[in-house]
Write a structure and sequence with these properties.
Layout lengths: L1 E2 L8 H9 L2 E6 L8 E6 L4 E4 L8 E9 L2 E9 L9 H15 L5 E7 L10 H12 L2 E3 L13 E6 L9 E6 L9 E5 L11 E5 L7 H9 L12 H19 L3 E5 L9 H20 L2 H32 L3 H11 L15 H26 L2 H7 L16 H10 L12 H6 L1 H18 L10 E6 L12 E6 L2 H9 L2
Parallel strand pairs: 6-7
Antiparallel strand pairs: 1-3, 2-3, 4-5, 5-6, 7-9, 8-9, 10-11, 12-13, 14-15
Helix pairs in contact: 5-13, 6-7, 13-14
């Protein structure tokens, strides 16, 4: 639990760094400069943030987590020492109201943070009033050592005092960590139900990078993809294109099942893990020895580990951006770095699976039909005469066949966006363009000359995109359908324009 985080509402890149280190965060930023509270937790934990009424005299955030059959509520507090916010009377009044609401909720509680009240000074009137308040609500304060560089117990840990609601809080310690903060780290252990470790997720994929492109091209040249007698028409040729390329891809990069740890950042390597282990060892040595030498060694190891982690992470993402082959990959990396929650991840939760897909499909189809019907009903007799006016321009009776050079130019100008309906990845397609040119040129020209569009190229992957992220996510009318067509379908569409 952190106080005075200085996180602002738009600091998503910093949140992304925290996630890359294996943690999630729930935070509440102060409008303007400074302040802020947050709760950091391992990715295998599931915390739910409760919306609480803001208080003028202190900042707070409240999250809850399941622990067996119990609920544990974690509250991070920050009371600013500034003159505008430090009036003790206002704070005690606000904190009183909050505790009255909090202690009526089910579950065990841990309240921790920077209260900026000198609890070591028992004779101080502010300390007496605060102590009286927490005792009245049956709370006990666990920190007994100075938590500030200038002395004083300012950072507190509060729990219920009755035995049935205690969490077995123990090993409360104040650690002088090698940071620039003027407050020390307060650590403690508590008893909760065992948490399941992160489970590995089973996925399917292909090792596209392992493909030998020269062998891949030879297989294309020796297949029906370069036998014009097999093409017949664009419909037949499109089926050959999809089938043969899928078979060649399967032979070079078969679909494999593999498992991944969703909580493990891809950039963390053995060097990072070794630096973490050495930093942890130096920390344990410092706690045991408590000498100036051990503290200096711990600070040195912390700085070294930070340098290694930052360098490795920066190098990883620089390399990812330099080798990205499409705008989609580039934006995916940037969105990951900025921790942007895209609207495409939002879908209705009223139903699941195929039932949800069918209902949304029927809704969009009906919406188009309603638009057509409204147009017909609203067109007046005078308006209809406008559609029957004679055409004054030069009529176009047929398309002109494309040359190989023109087709290459069309492909070069197209937005390089992949689709799961593509038989091979777009990167491989572009590398094998010379070998595929014969069948591509036939499909395009036969489609233009005869006015036929291959049925296999009419299939699209449709995903719903919410129009307003603040709108009702369970209302279908708040979504618009986004279609992703196969790349060959986009080529045909562009050639006809």
């Amino acid at each position: 639990m952190l106080s005075e985080t200085w996180l602002r509402k738009g600091d998503t890149s910093k949140i992304s760094e925290i996630k890359d280190l294996g943690y999630n965060t729930s935070h509440c930023s102060r409008p303007g400069r400074g302040g802020g509270v947050a709760i950091l937790f391992k990715k295998n934990l599931r915390l739910t943030k409760r919306n609480v009424k803001a208080c003028k005299s202190f900042e707070h955030i409240e999250c809850s987590m399941k622990s067996g059959n119990d609920i544990v509520r974690l509250i991070s507090i920050y009371r600013s020492p500034s003159a505008a916010l430090s009036n003790i009377t206002d704070f005690l009044s606000d904190f009183d109201r909050y505790l009255e609401e909090l202690l009526h909720l089910p579950g065990k509680i841990i309240i921790a943070g920077d209260f900026n009240i000198h609890m070591e000074n028992k004779e101080n009137s502010d300390t007496e009033k605060f102590t009286s308040l927490i005792e009245r609500y049956g709370l006990v304060q666990h920190v007994t050592c100075s938590t500030h560089v200038n002395g004083g117990i300012l950072d507190l840990v509060l729990t219920r005092s009755n035995a049935c609601d205690q969490l077995g809080l123990s090993n409360v310690a104040v650690l002088q960590t090698p940071t620039t903060s003027d407050h020390y780290l307060v650590s403690f252990t508590c008893t909760t139900a065992p948490v399941n470790k992160s489970t590995r997720v089973q996925k399917f994929g292909r090792k596209i990078k392992d493909i030998d492109i020269s062998c891949f091209k030879k297989d294309i040249l020796s297949s029906d993809l370069n036998d014009p007698d097999k093409f017949v028409d664009c419909e037949k040729a499109a089926k050959i294109y999809n089938q043969i390329l899928s078979e060649i891809l399967e032979s070079h990069a078969p679909l494999e099942k593999f498992s991944v740890n969703p909580d493990q950042s891809q950039w963390i390597n053995s060097e990072c893990q070794d630096a973490r282990r050495k930093r942890r060892k130096a920390e344990r040595d410092d706690r045991r020895l408590k000498s100036q030498e051990s503290k200096a060694a711990y600070r040195k190891q912390c700085k070294k580990a930070e340098e290694i982690l930052n360098r490795t992470r920066n190098d990883y993402y620089k390399n990812q951006l330099s080798v990205s082959d499409s705008k989609k990959d580039t934006y995916r990396i940037i969105n990951n770095l900025m921790d942007r929650q895209l609207s495409q991840n939002i879908v209705p939760n009223i139903k699941e699976g195929q039932e949800l897909c069918e209902e949304m499909k029927d809704f969009f189809v009906q919406k188009v039909e309603d638009i057509y019907r409204n147009i017909k009903e609203n067109v007046t007799g005078n308006d209809k005469s406008d559609f029957s006016q004679s055409f004054c321009g030069t009529p176009m009776s047929k398309f002109k066949p494309l040359s190989e050079e023109e087709l290459r130019r069309v492909i070069k100008e197209l937005n390089k966006k992949e689709c799961e309906e593509d038989p091979i990845p777009l990167k491989v397609f572009l590398q094998c363009l010379d070998e595929l040119m014969q069948i591509l040129l036939f499909i395009v020209n036969d489609s233009l000359i005869n006015g036929n569009f291959p049925s296999t190229l009419k299939n699209a992957l449709v995903r719903p995109a919410i129009k307003d992220e603040n709108g009702d996510a369970n209302s279908y009318k708040n979504y618009r359908p986004i279609s992703n067509l196969p790349f060959l379908s986009k080529i045909l569409e562009k050639c006809s324009l």
